[in-house]
Design a protein that fits this description.
heterodimer, A: 222 residues, mainly alpha, MetI-like fold, 0% strand, B: 274 residues, alpha/beta, Rossmann fold, six-stranded mixed β-sheet, four-stranded antiparallel β-sheet, 10 helices, binds adenosine-5'-triphosphate, binds magnesium ion, Ectoine/hydroxyectoine ABC transporter ATP-binding protein EhuA (chain B), ATP-binding (chain B)
Chain lengths: 222, 274
């Protein structure tokens, strides 16, 4: 009995995998991008830039992702008459801005954590500020960021399931649809959904481990 | 022919004039007045040892020349050019990064805690500024760096990372890294004081070697009095934010009557100077 229902559920959920992965990849790319922009913004010499980025970060960390998602999908288009675009755009935008805000703190913290003697040595070698950042500070800071970035990647994967609420046909969406027509299958459906997400998370967990290794090797204190 | 004239004057400057001139330099950190009017000339090729009690401002003096710290007032002149001030619309204004960069290329520094780049190999530590700052071909940069690494006795370590080296080896790499840039003035900030005693000798040996080559001016902040006596042309004693005594090593370390200097040296010779 159960075997048959699993075989029924599996291909349905499989239809959602590509959407989940699509949202994951796009959100990850934009989250990291935003994290770097906001992280540098927080370190800017310009007070206005610093204040503005700080404001953005607090707003997005201080409110819930699901509400932000609804804002981008429902509220903003109506209020300002701007089309955020497709569900995909709204979903990726909400997730990226939310996780970008969190991860910007990692970027900022890692850059600050690089020993100040490193910058001084780079100055003594007459590097420009930009060269100091690119050749000396960032390579060390990124090594510190990697493990945390890996952890957030897994969290972003889990957060992608929220896009089912704005009608995107991801794994959870297909599962919910199936359940609504066949409530008896609910346990099987949600068990399989867990398994799907876990399998998707496995390579990310592996990546995070790798990142931790790299990070340990990269920055021994001088 | 103004350009030719200019050139002649410049050559004259390099021979007779100091390469570095501190003019009435004061420096405060908040309410703390660390330097209270320093006048100091360094001639090309001259080796100057800077000594003085902890907190007297030795490190601050050389950090200002390396552009790591800005003087509160006074001028630092390098090769006839004002380091911390520049001309803008006929006014002297605070130097910007570009101005500092034009001048500090003549200056190099070795730090107490080495400050090697941990994510680069020993060779990369040496070549990176040659390639990116001096725009040298990678091959040429590597050749020059390998020669320098051999000179400091670390030719075989070129592809190791700093974390794989001893303190003495790290400091020798730091010196090679600074030397390949061929500065006219090299600053040393207590480069042996973070080392285990048995590693001090190998580092001093390298400095002795560099000093013998002659043409590079050196300012050494040091607590190694015997070493200062051995290689310095001039010893400068800093106390309470002013230069309290200066002269040949013999004059300062042996014949001075300055009481503060006497008691400072006395503390050292009894082995608890640091
Ligand atoms: N960035 C800073 N902010 C505040 N105070 C500082 C700073 N740098 C140095 N000082 C203070 O200035 C004084 C002189 O410092 P400096 O490091 O130049 O002394 P020093 O002669 O090199 O001493 P030491 O022999 O211990 O290295 C000290 O009292 C120090 O605490
Ligand atoms: Mg000092």
């Amino acid at each position: 009995m159960i075997d048959i229902s699993i075989l029924d559920v599996f291909p349905v959920l499989l239809k959602g995998v590509s959407v989940t992965i699509q949202v994951l990849v796009l959100s990850a790319i934009f989250s990291y991008l935003i994290a770097f922009i906001a992280g540098f913004g927080r370190l800017s010499k310009n007070v206005l830039v610093r204040k503005f980025t700080g404001f953005y970060i607090e707003i997005f960390r201080g409110t819930s992702l699901i509400v932000q998602l609804f804002w981008f999908y429902y509220a903003i288009p109506m209020l300002f008459n701007v089309q955020v675009g497709s569900e995909l755009m709204a979903g990726v935008l909400a997730i990226s801005l939310n996780y970008g805000a969190y991860m910007s703190e990692i970027v900022r913290g890692s850059i600050i954590a690089v020993d100040k003697g490193q910058r001084e040595a780079a100055t003594a070698l007459n590097m420009t500020r930009f060269q100091q950042m690119r050749l000396v500070i960032l390579p060390q800071a990124v090594r510190m960021m990697l493990p945390e970035f890996g952890n957030y990647l897994i969290q972003i994967l889990k957060a992608t399931s929220l896009v089912s609420l704005i009608g995107m046909t991801d794994i959870l969406y297909h599962g919910n649809m199936l359940r609504s027509t066949n409530i008896a299958m609910a346990p099987t459906i949600y068990l399989l959904i867990l398994v799907f997400y876990f399998i998707l998370a496995l390579p990310l967990i592996f990546l995070t481990r790798k990142a931790e290794d790299i990070s340990k090797k990269g920055v021994a204190s001088s | 022919m103004p350009q030719v004239m200019d050139k002649e004057v410049k050559q004259g400057v390099q021979q007779d004039e100091p390469i570095v001139k501190y003019e009435n330099i004061c420096k405060s950190f908040g309410d703390l007045e660390v330097l209270k009017g320093i006048d100091l000339d360094i001639m090309p090729g001259e080796k100057v040892a800077l000594i003085g009690p902890s907190g007297s401002g030795k490190t601050t003096i050389i950090r200002m020349l390396m552009t790591l710290e800005e003087p509160t007032s006074g001028n630092i002149i390098v090769n006839g050019k004002n380091l911390w001030k520049m001309n803008k619309n006929d006014h002297l204004v605070r130097a910007n990064d570009k101005h500092l960069r034009q001048i500090r290329g003549d200056i190099g520094m070795v730090f107490q805690h080495f400050n090697l780049f941990p994510h680069m190999t020993i060779l990369e530590n040496c070549t990176t500024a040659l390639i990116h700052v001096k725009k040298m071909e990678k091959k040429e940069a590597e050749e020059r760096s390998m020669k320098m690494l051999e000179k400091v006795g670390l030719g075989d370590k070129f592809d190791a990372y700093p974390s794989q080296l001893s303190g003495g080896q790290k400091q020798r790499v730091a010196m090679a890294r600074a030397l390949v840039m061929r500065p006219q003035v090299m600053l040393f900030d207590e480069v042996t004081s973070a080392l285990d005693p048995e590693l001090v000798g190998e580092v001093l040996e390298v400095i002795r070697d560099i000093a013998k080559d002659g043409e590079m001016a050196m300012i050494l902040v040091t607590h190694e009095m015997d070493f200062a006596q051995e290689i310095a042309d001039r010893v400068v004693f800093l106390d309470n934010g002013v230069i309290a005594e200066e002269g040949t090593p013999e004059e300062v370390l042996e014949k001075s009557n300055n009481e503060r200097l006497q008691s400072f040296l006395h503390r050292f010779r009894n082995g608890n100077g640091v």
